[in-house]
Amino acid sequence: MPVSVARSIAQDRRPPPAGTTSASQLVNQWTEAEAIGDERVRAFVLILRTRGCYWADLKGCSMCGYAKDTLGRSATPEELGQQLDAALRAYRGERYVKIYTSGSFLDDREVDADSRQRIVAGFAGRARRLLFETLPEFATGEVLGPLQRSFPGEIEVALGLESTQPGVLLRYVNKNSPPEAYFDAADRVRSFGLRAKGYLLLKPPYLTEREAVEDVVTSVRLAAPHFDALSVNPVHIQNGTVVEWLYHRGRYRPPWLWSLVEVMRRGSAERGASRLATFPTAGGLARGPHNCGSCDALVLAALLETSLSQQFQGLDELRCECRTEWLTDSTLEPLGVEA
Amino acid sequence: MTRTVVSSAGALLAGSVQVGPLRLDSPEILWSRPDPLPPDGPATGSRVELRVGVELPVGERELVLRRDPAELRLRFPVPTPEISGTPGMWQTVGPGVAYVHWPLPEPEWTALRASRPELVVLGNARALWQDGEPFIRALMEIRTQLGGYPGLWAPRVALPHRLSLLAWLGVDVVDTTEGLWGAAHGSYFYTTLGSVAADSARIERVCDCASCRSDPPGSLEIHTQATYAREMAEVRMALRDGRLRELVEARLTAEPALAEMLRFADRLMAPLVEGRVPVVSRAKRTYILRESRRRPEVQRFLSRVLERYRPPPSKRVLLLLPCSRTKPYRNSRSHRRFARAWEGWPPGPLLHVVSVSSPLGLVPRELEDVYPARHYDIPVTGQWEEDERTAVLRALDVFLARGAYTQAIAHLDPDEYKFLAEALPERLHPLWTLSDEHTTSATALRALRSALDEADLGPAPPSIGPLVGVKEGLEALARVQFGPPAAELLFAPPTRLEGRPWSQRLTDGRGKDLATWSEERGLFQLTAAGGARIVPAGALWVEVDPGVTLTGDLFAPGVRSADPTIAPGDAVVLVRSGALLGVGEAALAGALMTELPRGLAVKVRHRVHAPLLAAEPSAPTLP
To answer: How many CB pairs under 8 A join A and B?
Structure first.
């Protein structure tokens, strides 16, 4: 069988084993607006450089290009220690701390158990809520128990659920596990008294704009019972991905911000007790979710405000001429048989 | 449930295709109807609409093709080859409708063929179009694997200015989705220039559709639909006149992709298309662009000369003349004046008059009536482009290698035809009879005559009369028409020529006609006796089904197999197990005689008389 585009891209994007210099450096770190309950807070975000997601090496998700930020080998405890030191030097006591690797924080191949312990403990007593992301198979009691003991605040485990529809998840996103694996992991996490957060993907490849909206709205409804918070991530075009390959051939357009607005409006009625937020990456840019260009900033600001306040009515008042264009695209697209 | 063919152009079999309950014309536009409907869109009823059907679970989508009251519901899969690694797939998506995501592995083609689809939907047509050449490869493979029978729909590739090209490529069905998409994003379609600034177009009132006429102007969607409708009318008009190719070429300025596709197609689809172009036509052809010179009838003329032509054996003097605007050349003013130069020149039959032509390379006098040599027009500038020179030089190689010339004379402007000077070998001690571009001046004609008088006719020039010269010329033509083996059988002694210069009869010398030739047609028609002569050569044969008794014309169901080189207009022999049943004129390309389930295959001119049939096994008669 010929090698798929996904497979050959996955091979191409994997970096060669890195030297010690870059291995001691974080991929990135920044702060952003967040909310804990009704309280507006700053969030400190850090991205650790690790060997990266094992799934990205095997098959890889169609929209994910984070493998480029990985080492090509496991980071040593010393290197992770240096990255933690750098993070702590930049940390100004933000109440919310989000820790990402370009994969799973709980995968021992990426972050060994001792380093994990040290990293979490590094923020103990200073942050009120600590988030880290992982694939569901690593969110076990054995791993979470010790972390819970070394961090006195709230721990929030983020899971990249993306979609609750198995077809979308397995065929279009190319995930490893069905939605139930994510539900189970979220239920498990909550059974330990931790928070569970789910990421939902707006517009994986092969979905039309309209199908993409329906997909997220459905996902909000089905996922809400399992998660304390849901965050909608509209696809942006990352380097070295199937999505990018399609984008370059005119076969993929990042979602309209109108679709995101629609998802948030309709999702707000389906979210039950869970929070529903969105913090789009590359919003308003050609490779990110965007509208016509003139209304993007306004729409993004409304989406941010909605995400923080959990008051969704403001979205109803957004207007722009390009809304008609979005509607026309959405209705014409399905007539094309294939993208 | 079948395809009806009214005319053919390029790879298109124009007419209609019946798909389940729905009749689709070929070419046909599906009018994409998104929600909400454009207020003044085309009325339903006469036109075929394309709509979204019911919502299906993820991984399937339903589209509806409807022409009231007939309706076709198609359930399409959503393949993910970039992820799955399975390059292509096909599946039945409705009654008689096959969806294809190209490319398919070989066993899948076999299965697809066995499903006998009426309509093939090339699902990834748009993606293939973006890639360029693969689009043409896909179309060619579909036709090679499935034949001309199934209708073909290429979704979401048609823009108004692409309609003629898509038709030429054999895409029977297109839709307006891509144009409506463009309109939604501000494109104003104008078929000559592709898309133009809407403001300019509307200020100058270049379009008189309802939307552009109204003040203030209406929606671009309506203008787009009107543009599709008008262009499709032009395509149909051109089809009626046999001029679709010219319309295709006229649209090339709209976007580079059109010329790219046409160039790919002229190369990759030539085997399919050349066989579909009639070998006889009275229509005047104009070859204006570089792309014009790649037209199938031109390519066929050039390749037939290269593969089959041999100069008549008695010709010793190769005389190269400029071509003329008037066709056939020999009737033009210039050529009639040239002819005065060799009037009364004693070894007349040893003179070979050959015209240097673009785009046909070299046209010897005996092929001047062969389509398209008799009916074409080109822009003449006196500057030869690379491909035009190549065509001349390649033909010249063949003439020199297969002819028995001892002398070459070029009555050509030495500046303009410099490229020929190097190609004429020393052994023919070429004489250039002109010093400037005046070819018909008294001086020029005197120079030509004295060159003839000086001509080297070799050690033992043949001594033949004019009639033998004509016969050799006709045999040279027969080689081009039937191929050398069949021509040799047809002209094998005893044969005799009778008739007039414009209408010749080849007989067996005992008064029985073998073949007739008229200058109007340019090619031979066979009689039964002539057909019997060429049967052993295995050329231009149509094997008649055992169940058919030949009483009138031969229709496609009665054809068991046919020579794939047969083109419409070809003189063909009807055979069964090696025995001649009759002769006639092909109405279809050889391949189509078995690919199509019905339609006239051969217009039968003569059936053989009973004695020749005696050896045949008795066969049941069709009612």
So the answer is: 107
